[in-house]
Amino acid sequence: VPVLEDGSSLVGISSRDLALMGGLCLLTETPRSALHDLTQNLSFKEHLEYFPEVRELLRALYAANYGEAMRLLNGLKDEVLMDIHLSRHWHALHTSITNRATASYVEPFLTVDLRKMALAFGCDIEELEERLVKLIINGDIEARIDSYEKVLQARQTNMRQSTLRQATNLAESYVANTKAMVLRAQVIKHDLMVKSVSLLDVATQPMLGRM
User: Fold this and answer.
1) pTM value?
2) If you compute the radius of gyration of the chain from its CA atoms, what whole number of angstroms results?
């Protein structure tokens, strides 16, 4: 019989409780890209039908609908605090899920407008900035915050710009080489020969003329 951390077994736990416990715990470690598969897992899907709010939370996070996800997560607080197994873990669960959603939001971008992000998460900008600072300190996000402009900037920006410059230089070099090859082909085609003249030839030419 499965046993929980507090020593109690899962015998007698309802499908609704399993959906709540399983859903929240999975959200603390499951990549966002895999959340859809969780909602379609036959064994887990059956339990989720008894707690649609948890199912919708999974779907909202998968769809990157962070405002709706935070609303659903916060709406589970009273239910979690009444659960003898989860109540003491609410803060840790809430923090972990919120932090993962925050990191997931900023991941695709080089710069993020904190005002728009706060609006998307349904929180004030000071709360969001404090959360982001902690994530940066912990190494969960590689970025820096411009508190004056209220912008988050990814630290790989310079590396990406450098890569772009290298690609541009390579393209320009390729175009120049191609033009040179075309010109050479045209010269050969029309039997035009250009002889190189060395400094020795130039220096000795008058002397040879006098001889």
Assistant:
1) 0.68
2) 32
